[in-house]
Design a protein that fits this description.
This protein has helices spanning 2-41, 46-49, and strands at residues 53-59, 62-72, 75-82, 97-106, 110-116, 128-135, 138-144, 151-158. With 159 residues, it is of the alpha+beta class. The protein has an eight-stranded antiparallel β-barrel.
């Protein structure tokens, strides 16, 4: 009878140990699944964060470009505030115009976008803009406007 009691105790201890090991494995598996889920479902990946924020640049020594770039879920959006600068007298340039960013995509280095509501096709403002991030808080904007040479403006991220 003692022999059966000993085997029963060993079997019971083995069951308890097996339960603990399986519980720990399931717990670790759940934590790994949750972490992977956060990676896959995170709305802003590190790549997009390089382009997010408020950026400002000058043309001919006068503030001329402001960009606010945000991300909701997986969609980049924002606004651009632009001033046309009079080459002969930069201080008497036009009032700023605010336009929404359209078709914004970021490949990890360069943000590509168009300006929505671009004054009904009038070529006063760029039809396409490419912002290439060259440092933590610095980027180069390439402004493409029909009938003009491309303009490159250095912009810096503002806090």
């Amino acid at each position: 009878m003692d022999d059966l009691g000993g085997k029963s105790r060993i079997s019971s201890n083995f069951s308890v140990l097996l339960s603990l090991v399986l519980s720990a494995a399931l717990g670790l598996g759940f934590v790994a699944l949750v972490n992977k889920g956060h990676e896959l479902l995170s709305p802003m990946q590190t790549r997009e964060q390089r382009a997010l924020g408020t950026w400002q640049g000058n043309s001919q020594g006068v503030p001329a470009v402001w960009l606010r770039i945000e991300c909701d879920g997986y969609q980049l959006h924002g606004t651009a505030v632009l001033r046309t600068i009079d080459e002969r007298n930069p201080l008497s340039s036009d009032s700023p115009v605010t336009l929404n960013l359209d078709e914004a995509t970021f490949d990890g280095q360069t943000l590509h976008f168009r300006l929505a509501g671009n004054r009904g096709g009038v070529d006063l403002f760029p039809s396409a803009i490419h912002m290439t991030v060259i440092g933590d808080n610095e980027a180069q904007l390439k402004l493409t406007t029909a009938g003009r040479n491309d303009e490159v403006v250095t912009v810096t991220r503002r806090a």
